[in-house]
Amino acid sequence: MAYIQFLGAAGTVTGSKHLINSGTDSDGKNGFQVLIDCGMFQGLKEWRERNWQDLPAPAREIDAVVLTHAHLDHCGWIPRLVKGGFRGPIYATQATIDLCGIILTDSGHLQEEDARFYNKHKKSKHDPALPLYTLADAENSLQYFRAVPFEQLQQLSPQMSFRFVRAAHILGSSMVELALQANGQSRRLLFTGDIGRVCDEKASPGKALQGGPQEGEAADVLVMESTYGNRQHPTDDPRPRLAEVIRETVQRGGTVVVPAFAVERTQKFVFMLKQLMDSGQIPKIPVYCDSPMAIKAVEIFIKHSEEYSDQTRKLISQYGSPLTWPGFTFASTSEESKKINDSKYPSIIISSSGMVTGGRIQHHLAQRLPDPKNTVVFIGFQAPGTRGFIIKSGAPEVKIFGDMVPIRAQIAVFEQFSDHADTPELLKWLHTFTQKPGVTYLVHGEPSASAQLKDAIAKDLGWNVQVAHWMEKVQIG
Ligand SMILES: [Zn+2]
Fold first, then answer.
1. Residue 420 contacts residue 227 (beta carbons within 8 Å)
2. What distance in angstroms lies between residue 101's CA and the mean position of ligand 1's atoms?
3. Per-residue pLDDT tens for 289-308?
4. From ligand 1's centre to the CA of 29, what distance in Å?
5. Whole-prediction pTM value?
6. Is 379 helix (H, G, I), strand (E, B) or coil?
7. Which of 82, 97, 374, 392 fits as disulfide partner to 409, beta carbons 3.0 to 4.6 Å?
């Protein structure tokens, strides 16, 4: 029997990993095994601990990985898979590969740094605290990546092939259309990865990519994300309130701290700040982008302009590279980062990780959260259990590097920057399907979001929808 097994992003939004097994051959040989995405679990400890468990299929018996995009919850477990013995190809678009080149190495580096910190301060129950993988493991995994352009057919085995189509979620992001021959039947599977927003300046202001997710799809089995399965994004322009929040913070003599994913989200945000400054809506205060990959991230963002909307291209040609803007500093070394930490004057600090699960943002928040003059601005999704989620929900304190830090800074939340389609947009996209899938499995959602999207799809389209469970195996042929 051919099957899919949901090894992550089932019952939660992180750790995306879906194993396809083409089924046992007539001679008893195990089937061809492909992993769609290989993400890291983030957030609640019960999920994070699963990063340390082996997969049910030994890593060396997995034949290939097909990667939808470069977010850590989709690619962050790849170095661990390679460390465990995987030696097959990892297929991704060129932009995804470029992004993984900095994101995975940064992740390895951060894990080593965190383990060192815990060992030095003896704040881990594990003695010694170990990194999930190292910078060297991450670098080593990059040799297995193979670029596949959008819409080009790629054979995986005699029975299996796939094609990337646009997901319009982040730079390089794709959905995977997979064709499989099993038991004399041909089956068409569609894995959405994360689904981007429609391209509409009003509905999704500041969206950098051109177009929306690929329309007119058809599949026997659809595996679909449901992050915003119970939500509708606000459609108002976030800029006036953002400008007000920044002005008020500056008037108090405070600093604005923005946890943000270092690639694309940060670049989109700095272009918005530049526009607000040039139009006089906010004062020209220093802006710091503090990430070890800050400079390379800008270079990749500028390099892949083929994926952008006309408006984004116009912005880039008008303002040029953010690396050349006066007053904008991109910090790569830890010395540069420490200097930002010492700054006493009003400024804007943008740092990763976006959900405060690791990285330099932790140092900035540990220092700035106790002071009510400062403001923390959230511009991205915060998964339950992450420090970002705790701070955003109005908790009085949060644990950072083993210490409880009081939260007295102001908190401002903007949902408009989301790179995920909301429920009306997801339904709108499903309506473009040319045929009804035999079955749809919902993944990548909190249980309440997946359950509500299931009901909405059943009601709106009358489709057979199931919510996937962690480790569940479903037959596909
Ligand atoms: Zn994503």
1. yes
2. 16
3. 998 888 898 999 889 988 88
4. 35
5. 0.90
6. coil
7. 374
